[in-house]
Amino acid sequence: MMIILLVLALLPFTTALQNGLALTPPMGWLTWQRFRCITNCQKYPSECISEDLIKRTADIMLSEGYLDAGYNYVGIDDCWLEKTRDKRNRLVPDRERFPNGMKAIGDYLHNKGFKFALYQDYGNKTCMGYPGVLGYEAIDVQTFAEWDVDYIKLDGCYVDISKMDTGYPYFGKLMNESGRPMVYSCSWPAYQKKPDYDSIAEHCNLWRNWDDIQDSWSSLSSIMTWFAENQDTIAQYAGPGRWNDPDMLIIGNFGLSLDQAKVQMAIWSILAAPLFMSVDLATIRPEFKEILLNRDIIAIDQDSLGKQGLRVWNKSMTEIWSRELSDGSYAVAFVNRRDDGTPTVMKASFEVMNLPEQTYKVQDLYKEDEDRFFGPDGEFYTRVNPSGVKYFKFVPKISNDVEEKTYFTSRI
Ligand code: GLA
Predict the structure, then answer these.
(1) Backbone dihedral angles phi then psi of residue 373, each to the nearest 5 degrees
(2) Coiled-coil segments, which residues (predicted)?
């Protein structure tokens, strides 16, 4: 009887997915945004989607501290397949670019301490026209399990949109039954006008909500706007095991300035977003690498409470985003979307920042400003670069030591 009661008591807190994975937003590296569908290895040997690219990237992630910082999934997005299945209807990886097959990739990654992520599509073709899973779902899940895949990104090109609401849960059920724990990344809501988020959050570990990110500030900006404007609908669904996904990090590529790259890292961590880099780690400039490896910001993204932050203030193209953390601290980002040419001074009260009134030690997460104290007697001021961010952690100050006398509320 006790056991039954216990099971009943736990029921509302378990999801149908029940795979126990992605308790914090998954982190890693994925081919798509930077390497797209480059398949000509003669012409572009260091950029084509291939075994070499995956191994080289994993080697760098291991030797240069990315794995250590938490980026543990290495993923192949679209364009890894032969155009036809084999005689037994199984998927075949491109024979030239993946000469040893996908199990060998899985082994290589696992031996180095990584996990293996792979892309497929619920339709009869992937977005780039390679064979999709439709009609072969059970065989494909089985194949992925045999290759020791740890994470499936299931896209939604060439799918009858009305079939997604049953198709995605069905594929997830097959994943569960495969016996191999695999993270389930769904593109399901990105293709629908009115997604059923109750069902999506029940069946997927993460889901792409909206458009693909492109390598530009305007694309990044539009995603931030979409997430802010839809936060009342979507934020409540995020939590351990289930995450909204604003798409890959474009930090270190061609399109973002250093300040803009800092904006993406800050806002993605406020959003409790999956952090998938998509960049050439062999050539990334050190200042961008430093942003990707900012441990304090990664810790915010990975906070165990898993509560997605919100844009709490928005006026004259300046915004404040705020996220509550498990230890009672808050992450607060001041974003300036203006292109004035000079930094903009932003000021904020507790109410505006969505913070309980108390004294805080305020740490600048990009270490541009000195740490300061901020108490109920002041307004918070900061100066933010054009298309830039100032990102702080407000840590409640418990003790009454001498430092407290130096509340920093001065104007800039
Ligand atoms: C869609 C997805 C992208 C990427 C491409 C691959 O556009 O949203 O993230 O996977 O397909 O073709």
Answers:
(1) -105, 150
(2) none
**List of domains in the chain:** 13-301 (3.20.20.70), 310-404 (2.60.40.1180)
pLDDT digit string, tens, across residues 150-207: 999 999 999 999 999 999 999 999 999 999 999 999 999 999 999 999 999 999 999 9
Query: Treating both helix axes as pointing N-terminal to C-terminal, what angle do 51-63 and 101-111 enclose, rounded to 10 degrees?
Result: 10
247 has catalytic annotation:
no
Å from CA of 215 to ligand 1 middle = 14
d(CA 305, CA 240): 7
Flag whether the pTM goes above 0.70: yes
Is residue 386 classed exposed, middle or buried when 0-12, 13-18 and 19+ CB atoms within 10 A define those classes?
A: middle
Q: 197 Cβ partners below 8 Å, 6+ apart?
A: 189, 233, 234, 237
Pairing state between β 372-374 and 360-364 = antiparallel
Beta bridge partners of 346: 382
